[in-house]
Design goal:
Strand order of the largest sheet: 1-4-3-2-5-6
Oligomer: single chain
Helix content: 25-40%
Distance between the termini: 44 Å
CATH superfamily of the largest domain: HUPs
CATH architecture of the largest domain: 3-Layer(aba) Sandwich
CATH topology of the largest domain: Rossmann fold
CATH class of the largest domain: Alpha Beta
Shape: globular
Bound molecules: adenosine monophosphate
Strand content: 15-25%
Number of helices: 10
Largest sheet: 6 strands, parallel
């Protein structure tokens, strides 16, 4: 595995890989790697069927543009030694670990990408500017790497929808893959932020996925009123844990619009605080 901090070094290696006829795969992350990240690498290798054909680039960049002023940018876990070992073992070809200076050499970027409406709801309503930061950095990475394929986790479902819309609206030539959420054995979605949880919070956190599944079962059994689903999930979380609910929503999974009556492809999405840790999760299903 090669590792570089520099855009120029990355581009040189991509150029060589392209000359060898390789398929360029990009997996953007913020590091503190876990099996959710590494499964995407394994999947990119496996899908290919031939280890030699894909060239897998993983980026690790804690992007200041997507963090609000009082958010966890400074304390976000960073450990490049551990991450590079895990990335190498998983089969990454090139690890791109730019500094903030490399990505934003003029300080602030005057150009940003705003995918309106769908960036302002759900997580976006409590984290103004977050998806603008995400879309901008992903757009920059796409321009730097020009990947054939890019992987994003379904765990950050709204992020995927925002990026998908950006790709469509701006005619970006890339195939996006929404990778299913990888979970701990007790159902908690793997996340770098799980490391913030105290042992009591960690014990209670699986209620998030349990409540989502309960909501999903109600829908598959025929419940069509979004409020019934939302109330059931909120009750379950607040009675069974100390989690503070930020939102629970039932939305059309394609465009994130609300339902009068639930039908078609549905995403139940939520954000819950355990102490000072904000956890998100979702479940996708057909009504
Ligand atoms: P992050 O490092 O948290 O920004 O995540 C980098 C990428 O990995 C994003 O596309 C996430 O959606 C994805 N990801 C994070 N956690 C998981 C998980 N538990 N399962 C699958 N993908 C994930």
């Amino acid at each position: 595995m090669k590792i570089t901090e520099y855009i120029s070094g990355l581009r040189e290696n991509i150029h060589l890989a392209r000359e060898q006829g390789k398929i360029i795969v990009l997996i953007p992350t913020m590091g503190h790697l876990h099996y959710g990240h590494l499964s995407m690498v394994e999947n990119a290798r496996k899908d290919d069927g031939d280890r030699e054909k894909v060239y897998i680039i993983m980026s690790i960049f804690v992007n200041p543009l997507q963090f609000g002023e009082n958010e966890d940018f400074d304390r976000y876990p960073r450990n490049l030694v551990r991450d590079s070992r895990l990335a190498q073992e998983a089969g990454v070809d090139m690890l791109f670990v730019p500094s903030v200076q490399e990505m934003y050499p003029d300080g602030q970027s005057l150009t940003t990408i705003n995918v309106s409406r769908i960036s302002e709801i759900l997580c976006g309503s409590k984290r103004p500017g977050h998806f603008q930061g995400v879309a901008t950095i992903v757009n920059k990475l796409f321009n730097i790497v020009l990947p054939d394929i890019a992987y994003f986790g379904q765990k950050d479902y709204q992020q995927f929808i925002v990026i998908n819309k950006m790709v469509k609206d701006l005619n970006i030539l890339v195939q996006l893959i929404a990778f299913p959420t990888v979970r701990e054995q007790d159902g908690l979605a793997m996340s770098s932020r799980n490391s913030y949880l105290s042992s009591e919070e960690r014990q209670q956190a699986p209620i998030i996925y349990q409540s989502l599944r309960e909501g999903a079962v109600l829908i598959t059994e025929g419940e069509t009123d979004p409020d019934v689903i939302i109330t059931t999930i909120k009750d379950r979380i607040s009675k069974g844990s100390k989690g503070k609910i930020e939102y629970v929503e039932v939305r059309n999974a394609h465009n994130l619009e609300r339902f009068e009556k639930i039908e078609g492809t549905v995403v139940i999405s939520l954000a819950v605080w355990f102490g000072s840790t904000r956890l998100i999760d979702n479940i996708l299903l057909e009504a």
